[in-house]
Amino acid sequence: MAGIEKGLFRAEVAGNEKLSSACRLIRFARPEGFPDAKPGHFVAVRVNSSPVPLLRRPYSIMDLTETELVLLVKVVGPGSRLLGEAEVGDWMDIAGPLGGTVFPSPDGEDAVFVGGGTGLAPMIFAARTWKREKDSANTYLIHGAATSEELLGTFCEEDFTKVFRSTMDGSEGFNGDAVSFLQSLLKDGAISASKLYSCGPAGMVKSLELKVSTRFDSHYTSLEAVMACGVGACRGCTVPSREEEGRKLMAVCSDGTVFDASQIAWEDWE
Amino acid sequence: MSTTGSIKVTIGDILFDNPVFLASGPAGYGEEYDGFIDLQRLGGIVTKTVTYEPKAGNPGTRLQETPGGLLNSVGLENVGASVFFGEKLPRLLDRGIRPIVSLAAEDWDGYRKLLDAAADTGMIDIVELNLSCPNVERGGMAVGTDPRMISRYVGHAKDILSGAAIIAKLTPNVQDIGRLALAAEEAGASAITAINTIVGMDIDIRVKKPVFKRKRAGLSGPAIFPVALEAVWRIVNTVDIPVIGVGGIDSVDDALKFFMAGAAAVQVGTAIFYDSHLPEKIVTELEKNGIPASINTEGN
To answer: Nearest C-alpha of chain A: how many angstroms from B90?
Structure first.
């Protein structure tokens, strides 16, 4: 795989903080020799040493500092449950950093980040990285969730110029989905930006691309997928994309995870 | 085979430094695992199955984890003969990695073209015929369950790749895998690889549909190890050529069990996804304690 140094590491859990009913912030001490990562890179965590659950679980990097590797974990199945139960001092096997592409910098222009659920994680990493590098001007986060109980926005308030929240049941923030919210914010002139970045459920990203992306110069999205190898070998996590010569299947793990959203053949993706 | 001394193994005329390989499919083209696996330390890698034309593979969901297993419906996605022989294979050879080239075809015409292309490279001294993929419409298992077809495919490979070692990789989705192995041996195969994935399926109860577009998929991983072990035991009792054990190796001990069943070599597949150092750990164990002798004294 081109361009990125990666490896296998043993990482010690340094913190496990509850953010919502289902979501946790898992902090690992950065393993010695763990390469620098960029926004959009991910790691694959082996949650235990038994064959159930079998595979490593992929997580976007939410932050990587000189001392910490931070992941945002939503408990949805047996793998994430074990990771969510991790205690300080536990050790886990981590492969990373993985991914063949990263979010391109906004180059000093204003940017909108749309994070659905734990799709928030790479949005935070991007905002923090570019703030450190002074690469972005204004950054707006639209964070959508099903209910107020699942909203995660408060802990990352200072990472963005402004944070907007929406819930599908209207229990907090805008009543509706994140895409409709962004549409109304743009219409009202509450925000304006030239760059759009997103990560979240496929339905949300597809809707962003089809309904809103024309208001921006570019829309880059980090896709989620079930993965086995995480390095492009097994071809298990493919997504249909538009190429000059027609349709092509791209591996989310190694051809992405970050794609120009206009290159995804959304109509062919289930 | 010995319990001490050299752990080198010979298949056909090819001498391998040790009898631990990566299995076709999970191994990709090898280069993907840079930073994860020291490929030079392994006996070799069986490259991702290549077909004559590039193949996009199957649409829709391709992976589904099961307790101790992994269902896949990748469908032999690969870069095709031209890119494989022109780019992928030379890169492995340049790096001193020992490839065993996995070949498959959708029909006889494609098979002939593929073998001709392989022969033209002048680089191929050992191949593994994938006569057993359950995830493709034609070729694969349809060929691999018929002893006459196995005989025809192995025989043609012998003719075209003269001097090369031909390994036949067999499917367990038959009543008697020993019969298939015998057909391959009689047609001139240098070795048998057993097993490929086991046919399985899953249903998504929320949408009331099979998880995979093709409904059926191939099961790999620790869940299939006992099936693979029995198949290897059975084949060792049926043929005289070396048998390469593959299917569900999850630990060093599992590899030792294949050798005790009479295997001459082993391949690690699904486990490299979650325990990428396992093949190297098996090599280290063999270097330390030798290859265990076969306890399989049944049959011939």
So the answer is: 16
Question: How close is the nearest chain B Cα to the Cα of A153, in Å?
Answer: 30
Distance from CA of A191 to the nearest CA of B (A): 37
Indicate yes or no: CB of B273 within 8 angstroms of CB of A232: no
The one-letter code for the residue type at A129 is T
Claim: this prediction has a pTM higher than 0.90: yes
Strand partners, A179: none
Q: A 7-26 residues with CB below 8 A of B?
A: 7-8
By CA distance, what is A227's nearest residue in B?
B63
Q: Which is nearest to B119 in space by CA: B90, B89, B162, B58?
A: B162
Main-chain phi, psi angles of A124, to 5 degrees: -65, -40
For tokens 């053949």, what's the residue? A265
Is residue B133 annotated as a catalytic residue, yes or no? Answer: yes
Contact between residue A70 and residue A14 where contact means Cβ atoms under 8 Å apart: no
Structure tokens at B111: 């098979």
- The ipTM assigned to this model is 0.93
State whether A254 and B32 contact (CB < 8 Å).
yes
CA distance A264 to A248: 10
Across the interface, do B35 and A268 touch by the CB < 8 Å criterion?
no
Angle formed at CA B69 by CA B68 and CA B74, multiple of 5 degrees:
160
User: Closest partner residue to B273 among A55, A249, A268, by Cβ?
Assistant: A55
At A89, is the secondary structure helix, strand, or coil?
coil
> What Rg value do the Cα atoms of chain B yield, rounded?
18
- Rounded to 5 degrees, φ, ψ at B192 are -120, 135
Inform me whether the C-beta atom of residue A195 falls under 8 Å from chain B C-beta atoms: no
Residue-level pLDDT, tens digit, chain B, 300 residues = 445 569 999 999 999 999 999 999 999 999 999 999 999 999 999 999 999 999 999 999 999 999 999 999 999 999 999 999 999 999 999 999 999 999 998 889 999 999 999 999 999 999 999 988 776 666 666 788 999 999 999 999 999 999 999 999 999 999 999 999 999 999 999 999 999 999 999 999 999 999 999 999 999 999 999 999 999 999 999 999 999 999 999 999 999 999 999 999 999 999 999 999 999 999 999 999 999 999 998 754
CA neighbor of B117 nearest in space, from B167, B169, B64, B54:
B54
Please answer yes or no on whether B33 and A7 come within 8 Å at the CB atom.
no
Q: Which residue has the tokens 């990587």?
A: A64
Cβ within 8 Å of residue A222, ≥6 positions away: A40, A60, A103, A119, A122, A198, A199, A256, A257, A258, A259
Q: Which of B20, B103, B133, B192 is catalytic?
A: B133
Give SS3 for A87: coil
The Cβ of residue B194 has, within 10 Å, a number of other Cβ atoms equal to 31
Nearest CA-CA distance, residue B271 and chain A, Å: 9
Which residues from chain A sit within 8 angstroms of residue B48, using beta carbons? 233
SS3 B222: helix
